[in-house]
Amino acid sequence: MDFLVTLSDHFIGMFESGAETFMGFLTGIIPLLITLILFVNALVKIIGEDRVFGFMQKCTKFFFLRYTLIPFLACFFLTNPMCYTFGRFLKEEHKAGYYDATVSMLHPIVGLFPHANSAELFVYLGVAAGFGEVANQSELALRYLLAGFVIILIRGMITEKIAQLLARRNQKQAVA
Predict the structure, then answer these.
(1) For residues 30 and 125, what is the distance between their CA atoms, to the nearest angstrom?
(2) CB hemisphere CA count around 170 (13 angstroms)
(3) How far is CA 172 from CA 132, 160, 166, in A?
């Protein structure tokens, strides 16, 4: 009989734990995300969509800014997963490269700005704990971010070229 009681307690305990996590989301991350979305949308409306769109369009003309500054700003201000919405400011042929660069920025930004991708924080902290035994964790965070900028630039440019190649190939096949 004690076995059934224990089993029953653990069974319902699993659902109680799930409900507790769910309530944590309802009182924590979901209102934060909604507030962030509202704030960014309000800021864009106050500044003016045409001005914001124009500024972003100017930045996207330069591959260096398109694959470094814009993914960084998107991750910093909008965090994961909202950062992908900055892609709306890019031309269609640049969106694949932007997405690749942004996905890659979500890891290195965590060391200095953990709010950008809090789900990735546990990986960074694990690496930092080991590194902390031999060196400075702030140094690791800065090096991680700088290496990230180089990687996202390279990945964005390569992905853009691959997307252009595939688009041309699809156009040729459609004509034939």
Answers:
(1) 24
(2) 6
(3) 54, 18, 10
